Amino acid sequence: MNKKVVVVVGGGIAGIEASAFLSYMGFEVVLVEKENTLGGHVLNWEKLFPTMRYGSEVLDFLLQGISPKVNVYTCCEVNSISKKEHQFFVELSNGENFISDAVLVTTGYDLFDARIKEEYGYGIYENVFTSADLEMIFTAKKTLLTKQNKVPLKIGFVHCVGSRDEKVGNVYCSKVCCVTAVKQSIEIKQIYPDSEIYCFYMDLRMYGMHFEHLYKEAQEKYGVHFIRGRLSECFENVDKSILVKVEDTLTGRPLKMNVDILVLMVGFVPRKSTKKIADLIGLENGRNGFFKTKDQHTLTNVSNIPGVFFAGCCTSPKTITNTITDARAAASTIASYLLHHEIDKRTINLAP
Amino acid sequence: MTQYFKTLQEDIRFREGLSACINCGTCTAICAAAEFYQYDPRQIVDIVQSRNELEIEELLKSDTIWYCGECMSCKTRCPRGNTPGLVIMALRTLSQDSGLFIESEKGRQQLAIKRTIGEWILKTGYCVSPELINPEMHPEQGPVWKWEIDNIRTLMKKMGANYQGDGPGALRKIPEEALSELKSIFDITGATQRFEKIENDSSKKAEEMGLKLTDGLDNPYMQYIYKHNSQNHHNNQ
Amino acid sequence: MLEEGKKRIWAEYQKAVPDNNYYFVRSCIRQTFFPGSEQAFIRIIRNELGKDIYETPYHTTCTGIGYHSDIIPFETTMTVVARQFALMTEAGYSNYIPSCITSFGLYTEVLETWHHFPEIEAHIRENLWKATKREFKIPDNLSHPSDIFYHFRKNIAEKAKYSLVDIESGQPLNVVEHIGCHYSKMFPGKGIGGAEYPCVLIGMIEAWGGNAIDYPERRHCCGFGFRQYIVQSNRGYSVSCSRKKFESMKPYQPDLILTNCPGCPMFLDRWQYVISEIEGKTYGKNNQGIPVFTYEELAGLILGYDPWELGLQLHQIDCEPLLKKMGIKYNPSEKYLGYNREYIGKPEITKNLFHCC
Q1: Do B159 and C311 touch (CB under 8 A)?
Q2: Which of A98, A168, B23, B111 is the most buried (most CB within 10 A)?
Q3: B34: chain A residues, CB-CB within 8 Å
Q4: Alpha helix ranges (H) inside chain B
């Protein structure tokens, strides 16, 4: 009997893990990735919260699951998908085509383009970085210096950049930025123990296991300062240091200070390039622009199109841990669907 | 039972200016008044959104709501799309309509504004023109201004203005017909009523304070509200 | 500073500015303190650019200052605005050009209110009919005169006799640009360049040879504050705001300040005088102040108009050192002459501020 085929669109950690599980469950898997390597955003994160272990270790672990049984196509995109009854006719950009029985969308996210938040001066003031820029410096093992090649003595972290912000059109919280700021503060303190670090936050979302512990460590062991006030605007001084304007809302006073480097904690946004595949298949977007899942509690891997499933951040911001779990859940869900298991027939009044 | 919050909600500027505040502080961070005065727009919005009638009444009676310069810098920053400046305008309107403005040093100044700017609009059709900026009331305008006022006709002519003349041109005499239309508009839209309320409430307060209030600007109550500063408004940094 | 970042933003915030047939509405403060400026605007539009501009003597104040001092109810202001539009409609125009920035912000606010709440617009139409028997059409376009000069900045540059350059060193002058708060802070999409990096004045400065400088308190209000200036006991707020700006711009050594709002140049000019009297401090070189210009004055200057007809002698901060720097030919002896070339005396000398004559 012919094996059932699943096409997985997106070779980040969600796509990798789901492909691995699906292939070991006995399905034929086609994994399509538009870059020239698998790994997605995790390739650019050096150490992961809350343990400070290397992202590359996690990626290596996941890749061990990509047996030769998974057909990996890198530097490839999906050019067209059309549905005929229960199957999908999929055409790739390298000319190959497949008939698949299910499609798993794992296209992931984009980081918020900080230039949109004009008053933060990203791309205008030289010493304004994003958290991703900082992480690239760590990954490339470069020394962290100002653009004038000086050792930074004062560093500021700005929470909620591109998140919880009606002005830029993203009302939601991106979940992972607060704990990333705490993590990066600690990392900088480890490099420059004498530096002063300030986190400008509205709320500190330390929801995950051990996040609160990391926050306490940042305060007690490393002396990171936390100021409850969202950045209103910043400016470049004559010496290229950055002038920060916030209100210290806990004391109720406006506060201005200079930092040498300002790090913007950019949030997650729906990946722009997924519009193509969304239009091809007819996928619906939710209120925040990410893909809409069929039911928020019980069917988070299921789309509005029968046979098309989701895993990872294409439906909402997630941590790496949650993404890996979500990928395995998607694999189970797809397996139940393809094998016509009874469990797949449960019903509920949908709350999408 | 007061209905301050309900009344505020009837003001379109209040509805546009406040949905819900998350106390992030971006408004206070950028506020010019917060730099110099004991003023925090975030706190004001927070008080108002609590709907506490007693606290709102305190605000309406206080100097606090009169510190804002209505520059609207706060509007550019709020991540919830609020505008503390518009909330302030609604509070100031309510403070005058309810008569509570008379209880604060800064609120009482509304009479000075009404008798200068307000009456000037009806008298001339301008908010401001040179005759209103008397060098004695405005020493900060400097010696060049005084010289300009002393020689105003010839200087205006030199600049190509049509000072107090008929027809178009800078500082022309605005025709009577236009002024009477303005008065008509003031009458049916509530401005005349507001002016009267400011006058009447101020008159009562002047009596209470034992300061004589007569017409015009040259009387003890007017001079007091125009010049008096208790010096405890500044936020001593 | 990385200029490409700003250019990207400017490209996003462009707006449609009409090419001709302007219905001009004057500004109370502009007329009072800078009467030569509005005349220069009209002269440049008609004579230099060959465009049609019309004003009716029957228009009044928009009541903006009264509205922002909270003595005039919003309904009154909206009805007065409606009357202003009715006069425009009657005159057969639809490009509304208010000279005042507070007015510009106010008209924008009123139009946005009516757009989102048509029942309010209907009510105001009723009011206007009841009070004046007038009817109005919404303008096709609402632009500020500085938008028009921005739109035609290259045409003006072509006809210019002078430019914003130090003739001795050949270097572009350092120009601080100050945008009135009510231009784009309330509705960023209605201002050229948006709220954070407005470029309506930068465009003019660069087209006319100067170098626009950016500094930390660029966006800060000059401090007018309406009631904060009108009432004497509040003026501390007003001067403190301007002082904050001066302190912030000083390290960048500006040669002049350019503004597009009527109130701002008056405040930035007068408060320098006041600070020199109170603190003995000045912000230019040699005890000079930094001269403050309206965009009409600056355009008129580079086109070669007589500084004394533009009204530069009405500034508290002397402009002559700058005129000299730019190599502008003018007659210094005519500064204190009246319309008939009669000598009209000089203003009193100030204590601490530099006087060149």
Answers
A1: yes
A2: B111
A3: 247, 254
A4: 4-10, 12-17, 26-30, 32-36, 41-49, 53-61, 84-97, 110-113, 119-124, 142-150, 152-158, 176-189, 191-209, 220-227
Of chain C residues 257-276, which have a CB less than 8 A from chain A? none
Say if the Cβ atoms of B168 and C57 lie within 8 Å.
Answer: yes
What is the extent of the structural domain holding A284? 5-108+271-345
CATH number of the CATH domain containing A91: 3.50.50.60
Q: Give B27-48 pLDDT, tens digit per residue.
A: 999 999 999 999 999 999 999 9
Whether the CB-CB separation of A308 and A102 falls below 8 Å is answered with yes
Taking CB atoms and an 8 Å limit, are A160 and B79 in contact across chains?
yes
State the smallest CA–CA distance between residue C252 and chain A in angstroms.
Answer: 8
Residue of C107, C151, C182 whose CA lies nearest to C15: C151
Which of chain C's residues have a Cβ under 8 Å away from the Cβ of A115?
Answer: 5, 8-9
Within a domain: C352: no
Contact assignment for A243 to C216 by CB distance below 8 Å = yes
> Within an 8 Å CB–CB cutoff, is residue A246 touching chain B?
yes
Domain at B4-103, CATH from 1.10.10.10, 3.10.129.10, 2.60.40.10, 1.10.1060.10: 1.10.1060.10
Best B74, B128, B154, B228 member to test C by mutation, with max C CBs in 10 Å, is B128
* Parent domain of C122: 13-145
Q: How many helices (H) and strands (E) does chain A have?
A: 7, 20
Claim to verify: residue C69 and residue C134 sit in the same structural domain: yes
Query: Which one of A167, A253, A254 has the shortest CB-CB distance to B79?
Result: A167
Q: Is the ipTM of this complex over 0.85?
A: yes
Same domain, A90 and A187: no
Angle at the Cα of B65 from the Cα atoms of B60 and B66, rounded to 5 degrees: 115
Domain match, C288 and C252 both? yes
The reply to whether residue A121 touches residue C5, judged by beta carbons under 8 angstroms, is yes
Cα A17 from Cα B229, distance rounded (Å): 71
Q: Is A245 on the interface with B (CB under 8 A)?
A: yes
- Tell me if A118 and C9 make a contact (CB, 8 A cut-off): yes
Chosen from B19, B24, B75 to mutate, greatest number of chain A CBs within 10 A: B24
Pairing type for strands A128-130 and A47-48 reads unpaired
Best residue of B189, B232, B236 to probe chain C, by most C CBs closer than 10 Å: B189
DSSP label of C259:
E
DSSP states of A278-309 as a string? HHHHTPPB-TTSSBPPSBTTTBTTB-SSTTEE
Mean pLDDT of B183-202: 97
Q: Considering only the beta carbons, identify the residue of C83, C237, C309 that sits closest to B159.
A: C309
Q: Which of residues 158-217 of C touch A (CB under 8 A)?
A: 194, 196-197, 214-216
The proportion of chain A whose per-residue pLDDT surpasses 90, expressed as a percent, equals 93
Domain ranges of chain B: 4-103, 105-126+175-230, 136-173
pLDDT (tens digit per residue) in A181-202: 999 999 999 999 999 999 999 9
State how far the Cα of B201 lies from the Cα of B114, in Å rounded to an integer.
13
CA atoms within 13 A on the CB side of C25: 32
Q: How far apart are CA C133 and CA A274, in angstroms?
A: 57
- For the record, the structure tokens of C284 come out as 């230019």
Neighbours, chain C (3 or more CB pairs < 8 A): A, B
**Domains of chain C: total:** 2
Question: What tens-digit pLDDT sequence spans chain C (357 residues)?
Answer: 888 999 999 998 999 999 999 999 999 999 999 999 999 999 999 999 999 999 999 999 999 999 999 999 999 999 999 999 999 999 999 999 999 999 999 999 999 999 999 999 999 999 999 999 999 999 999 999 999 999 999 999 999 999 999 999 999 999 999 999 999 999 999 999 999 999 999 999 999 999 999 999 999 999 999 999 999 999 999 999 999 999 999 999 999 999 999 999 999 999 999 999 999 999 998 888 999 999 999 999 999 999 999 999 999 999 999 999 999 999 999 999 999 999 999 999 888 887 765
